[in-house]
Amino acid sequence: MYDPKRTQVAQSLVDFGRYFDTIFARTRIGGPVLLRPALVVPEDMSTGGGRRARQSIILQPEVPGPPALTVGWLDIPSRQAMIRTWGCLAAMHRQRFPGRAFDVDRGGYEQFFKQTTELLKTCGLATQVEDAPPDVGPVSGAPSAAAMAPPVAAPSGYGAGVLAIVGVTCFVLGLLVGVIVMMVRAKTG
Q1: CA–CA dist 108, 161 (Å, integer)
Q2: Considering the domain boundaries, does residue 116 fall inside one?
Q3: Does 3 reside within a domain?
Q4: How many domains does the chain have?
Q5: Which tens digits make up the pLDDT trace of 72-114?
Q6: 171 lies in some domain
Q7: Which of 38, 50, 84, 98 is an S-S bond match for 88, by CB 3.0 to 4.6 Å?
Q8: Can you say how many angstroms the Cα of residue 60 is from the centroid of all Cα atoms in its chain?
Q9: Angle made by CA atoms 127, 89, 142, in degrees to the nearest 5
Q10: Does any domain span residue 2?
Q11: Residue 103: is it exposed, middle or buried by C-beta count within 10 angstroms (0-12/13-18/19+)?
Q12: Which domain, by its residues, includes 46?
């Protein structure tokens, strides 16, 4: 929903979040609890000049109680994104919860992963794939160069083309509406 108090960047993040939700509205990833993909949209009216524009890509449980699983992030102003493979998530789970099974359906996640990487690439975001847990040491919690795989190849096929057209159209329309609203506000203010 449009809010005239939001900055243009914050509004574009909300619009992209709605677009993401539409794309993955019927996607569910199996396990003991069904998980649905979601994009965390900013609650603030401003991103501080883009400094708080990073949005988490999560798998949200369909029932209350279990925590959400963060599987990646995207940053529209910097045109960057990162998504983790199923193997990376399973390895992170083993580190945090030794002896406890990682119960996210691999096939369902890999299908979501493929669709998400296609969406991010189609929208023009430089996408990194994290296929190993980040090195967490005393110096830095950032992923090591060895943990980051090269960007995913460009999508191909009919589905990616349609996704590209819809994604770019929604993004451009969102920016256009933002500019028009700012012009109207400037004339009336």
Answers
A1: 22
A2: yes
A3: no
A4: 1
A5: 998 888 889 999 999 999 999 999 999 899 999 999 999 999 9
A6: yes
A7: 84
A8: 13
A9: 60
A10: no
A11: exposed
A12: 8-188
